[in-house]
Specification:
heterotrimer; A alpha+beta (580); B mainly alpha (167); C alpha/beta (242); B: 167 residues; mainly alpha; 2 domains; elongated; C: 6-stranded mixed β-sheet; 4-stranded antiparallel β-sheet; 7 helices; 10 strands
Chain lengths: 580, 167, 242
């Protein structure tokens, strides 16, 4: 019996290739964003590991007030290797936009542990200064440029380097730079907050947190700080966090759109195959088995989508992670963790199967006899909303079209939801853009530059999906109602009026849905902002921009549905109304 | 005999009852015919007559014998035979077309006309007032037969077109 | 008096899958105002095609269609639609009501199209439904009505704008015998009020009710004869009620 159901499911997929393809595309996109969100965090691990190895990194970094305290730590229990303590202080760098504080370390020779890894020029400061690489990029400064510090101390940039415990500037603030000890002494009068850092390597790296804890316990409270290598790594990888947040948000939006569109597609199919389902039931399939056929279809499509999405996500993750690996050496790798595939598959399958099951449940619970006799789907009952439309003074075409769309209440609501969410994603992007624009000029943004690019790309993908889905759904609706269009023409509607019975209800729906997308998008933006740790109220997009979203949505919907509408108007009446 | 099943009666009473119940189904029977029929029935042993004592005209009162009753019962309970293979039009059609006397399609069309006209007539009769339910049933029956005959005409025409000449 | 409808040498050929099929070959048909014309013939003879061409739902391959002195086979879709809404009502075998509109709304539609005010349209629609015996079913959805009731609604819709011509393609075809009789009665009533009818039918009773029966065979008119007025029927006996 089960193999029969599976065969039925596969034949169902084959006969509805377009709808199946659309479902896979949608679900794969959602899967890709999930995988990206998970992978992007991981993609930086390898490069960091390489950086750590190249720097001969410290398992525990301890920052204490005095050199003596630092030296004492060199022989702490568990330590197998220690570098000479390094002093560091905060000094103001004079820039065109005012003083910029930097954290300068005074090196005497190449440190034994946690040595800066050269990126450009040389890692040995000599008479000049070595800047941390992302700082140099942010300040737009290169090897050979001169910098002036407080007290008019001028230094030449001799190189840029990275350290495993320094995250990307300006996330890691203030920026980091190295000079040699004599230069450090020269700058000393102009700096403050001096402290000493000692880099320790342990016999048992896994014990780093315990060692760090015991170090802190033996220091006067509040005077010192420690950093384990685990903390260093997560700090370095934290750059991925805003990316992950955005991707998570888009995953949610995409999954919701998947749910809505699949529900509509499956529901429309069940409607079309009303008669066939009735026959299946007459032959002996129970309603549950009929449901199962649809569920199997969705499961198969979901699995395909998950694999496709996983592949896309795994391939794209290094691309997304590249900018954030500015503080590391080596390129981001494909982490391609199989666990991520499972997560993506579970999410996608859950949404698909739930959507399918809910949609078919309503449709397959009807009398077998009714289905076979009617030969045509049981039309939905006019809802209260449809009756309301009946009362409003609308043009004939609009009234006919609206009542039809609203009579299929579930479909109208789902479509409205999908349109609303797509619009909300654009409102999100606009708000993000507004926030970026609102930042004072010259101040280096906390938001990585690839973030807007990511958001716009995702919005573009979402828009493409939305338009494709809308077209598919409108075409489905056209096929269902071809006979009705023929009847309307017979009664005397002109081709243009017939076309508008298809376009106008969608346009009406789009107006309502897109207006709703503004508050939804704003809410999404505020939620994401807060989750990213932003404080205060984020700047929102100005009203002229926001109004653009509903206007553009409605226009797009009208354009998209005009295609099937024209087909409807052209349909030959004689073909359509040929008696069965 | 059916009339007598209700009881006994004079010849004259029988004549009245005949006229009343069956009207124009049969041509108007005169008394002589009734009495001769009764005599024949008596001869065959299906009815028996009794002279009424006080009547000087020799009128008899008739009633059914047992044998008569049985015969009547059989007549009622045995169904009328079904297939009616004899059809006047069909005979005419086969003869005329095989002899080349008329074009088959034209014959069919003419007959169809006639059937349609008859339908029209019957429909008109149905819509006049004052019909008893029995009349309606009778007319509806004729309508259905006509429709069946029309269907048969369609069939003949169809076979004619596909099968060639009638043999 | 000019005929209401006239076709001249009307022909229609379909090109389905390569082999052309001639559905109509040179049909001349005239329908005068107030006439009730029935079109009969075996299936595939072109009855539906003829009706579609007459109502402007399809374009002829050759020949002309004249409606009330005006040639209509060359008109644009829009013009044909406007013609139909005012002047031609169509009744189908399988009713073809819009499923998402109530019975009333279905009947209102042609009225609204010709610019009747909404409230007036509703009033007229209700009146029509009452005349046809289903005044209480106005609010129902078509799916809840029986075949006969649906066909009555369809007829009301066809009659809504008091069209010059009502065209019917097997109007009783989808109904059982008793209901077919009822619908036929309604059609005759309309005819009695002066409505011109052109019906394609298999049903002999419908044909018998017509003034003229046109027989089509293989796309051509085979016979076109007027039926006489009903002759009196003599019954074999007039029995007492049982």
């Amino acid at each position: 019996m089960f193999s029969t159901l599976v065969r039925l499911a596969f034949s169902g997929i084959r006969t509805r290739l377009v709808a199946s393809g659309l479902t896979v595309l949608l679900a794969a996109t959602a899967a890709a964003t999930v995988v990206l969100a998970l992978e992007v965090g991981q993609a930086g691990r390898e490069p960091w590991q390489q950086t750590f190895a190249a720097a001969h990194g410290a398992h525990v970094l301890a920052n204490v007030p005095t050199e003596k305290a630092a030296r004492a730590l060199q022989s702490h229990r568990g330590v197998v290797e220690a570098a000479a303590p390094v002093p560091d202080m905060t000094v103001n760098l004079q820039t065109g936009d005012g003083p910029e504080p930097l954290r300068i370390s005074g090196l005497s020779g190449r440190p034994q542990v946690n040595a800066p890894v050269r990126i450009a020029g040389t890692a040995t400061p000599g008479n000049g200064i070595v800047l941390e690489h992302s700082l140099a990029t942010a300040l737009n400064v290169g090897v050979g440029d001169r910098l002036t510090f407080a007290g008019d101390v001028g230094l030449r940039v001799v190189g840029t380097a990275v350290l495993p415990n320094v995250a990307r500037y300006p996330r890691s603030n203030p920026g980091v730079a190295w000079v040699d000890r004599s230069t450090f002494d020269t700058l000393r009068p102009h700096g403050d907050r001096e402290s000493w850092t000692v880099a320790l390597r342990l016999a048992d790296p896994a014990a780093a947190p315990k060692v760090a804890g015991s170090i802190l316990a033996h220091q006067p409270p509040g005077s010192s700080s420690t950093q384990t290598w685990q903390e260093q790594r997560s700090l370095a990888l934290m750059d991925a966090q805003p990316l992950q947040l955005i991707l998570a948000m888009y995953t949610v939006v995409l999954l919701a759109v998947v749910f809505a569109v699949v529900a509509i597609l499956v529901g429309a199919r069940a409607l079309e195959q009303y008669r066939q389902i009735g026959l299946l039931k007459a032959v002996g399939l129970t309603p549950r088995q009929v449901d199962l056929v649809f569920v199997i279809e969705s499961t198969v499509l979901g699995l395909v989508a998950a694999v496709l999405g996983f592949t896309a996500g795994a391939l794209l993750a290094p691309v997304l992670a590249r900018p954030s690996s500015e503080t590391m050496i080596g390129s981001p790798t494909r982490a391609a963790d199989p666990v991520h595939l499972v997560v993506a598959a579970v999410l996608v399958l859950l949404v698909l199967v739930l959507s399918t099951w809910l949609s078919t449940r309503r449709r397959t619970r009807f009398s077998v006899l009714h289905a076979i006799e009617s030969g045509r789907a049981a039309p939905p009952r006019p809802s209260a909303l449809a009756r309301l439309v009946a009362v409003l003074p609308l043009g004939v075409s609009l009234a006919v079209g609206a009542r039809t769309l609203l009579a299929g209440r579930a479909r109208a609501l789902l479509l409205a939801g999908a349109i609303s969410l797509t619009g909300a994603a654009f409102v999100f992007a606009l708000s993000m853009q507004a926030s970026l624009d609102a930042q004072p000029a010259g101040q280096v943004s906390d938001v990585p530059t690839e973030l807007p690019v990511l958001v716009y790309t995702l919005d573009g993908v979402l828009l493409l999906i939305a338009i494709t889905s809308l077209l598919a759904i409108a075409l489905l609706g056209l096929r269902e109602r071809l006979r009705d269009f023929g009847v309307l023409k017979t009664v005397g509607l002109t081709p243009r009026q017939v076309a508008s019975t298809l376009v106008s209800p969608y346009a009406m729906l789009a107006v309502v849905a897109s207006v709703l997308s503004i508050p939804v998008g704003i809410a999404l933006y505020i939620a994401t902002y807060r989750a990213a740790g932003g404080d205060g109220d984020p700047t929102l997009a100005p009203w002229p921009w926001l109004v653009l979203v509903p206007v553009a949505t409605v226009l797009l919907v009208i354009v998209a549905t005009s295609v099937p509408a024209r087909m409807a108007a052209r349909a030959s009446v004689a073909d359509v109304l040929r008696t069965e | 005999m059916a009339l007598l099943s209700g009881g006994r009666g004079h010849g004259y009473e029988l004549k009245q009852a005949l006229n009343q119940s069956f009207g124009t189904l049969l041509p108007e029977l005169n008394s002589g015919q009734i009495y001769s029929t009764l005599a024949r029935l008596e001869r065959d042993g299906l009815v028996e007559g009794e002279s009424v004592a006080d009547d000087n005209r020799g009128k008899k009162v008739y009633r059914l014998t047992d044998r008569g009753r049985e015969l009547l019962r059989n007549w009622v309970s045995v169904p009328v035979p079904g297939p009616r293979l004899k059809d006047e039009f069909f005979i005419k059609f086969v003869v005329a077309t095989s002899m080349g006397l008329a074009d088959p399609l034209t014959m069919i069309e003419l007959q169809r006309r006639e059937y349609l006209q008859s339908l029209r007539d019957l429909d008109a009769r149905l819509t006049t007032d004052g019909n008893s339910p029995t009349t309606e049933l009778m007319v509806e029956g004729a309508v259905l037969h006509l429709k069946a005959d029309l269907g048969w005409l369609d069939l003949i025409e169809e076979r004619l077109v596909t099968g060639g000449s009638m043999s | 008096m000019t005929a209401l409808l006239e076709t001249r040498d009307l022909a229609k050929t379909y090109d389905t899958g390569g082999t052309p099929v001639a559905a109509l070959i040179g049909v001349d048909l005239t329908v005068r105002r107030g006439e009730f014309v029935a079109v009969m013939g075996p299936s595939g003879c072109g009855k539906s095609t003829l009706l579609n061409l007459v109502a402007g739902l399809d374009r002829p391959s050759a020949g002309e269609v004249w409606f009330d002195g005006r040639r209509i086979d060359q008109l644009s879709e829009t013009a044909l639609a406007k013609l139909r809404r005012r002047r031609i009502g169509f009744v189908f075998q399988f009713f073809n009501l819009l499923p998402t509109l109530s019975a009333e709304a279905n009947v209102e539609l042609p009225l609204l199209l010709t610019g009747t005010h909404r409230r007036e349209a509703r009033r007229q629609a209700r009146g029509l439904l009452t005349d046809l015996g289903i005044g209480d079913k106005g609010r129902s959805a078509p799916s809840r009505l029986s075949g006969g009731q649906q066909q009555r609604v369809a007829l009301a819709r066809a009659l809504a704008n008091q069209p010059d011509l009502v065209v019917g393609d097997e109007p009783t075809g989808g109904l059982d015998s008793a209901t077919a009789g009822e619908v036929l009665g309604l059609l005759r009533d309309a005819h009695g009020r002066g409505q011109t009818l052109l019906l394609a039918t298999h049903d002999a009773r419908v044909a018998a009710a017509a003034d003229r029966v046109v027989s089509l065979r293989d796309g051509r008119v085979f016979d076109d004869r007027t039926l006489d007025a009903a002759r009196p029927v003599s019954l074999p006996f007039d029995p007492e009620p049982l």
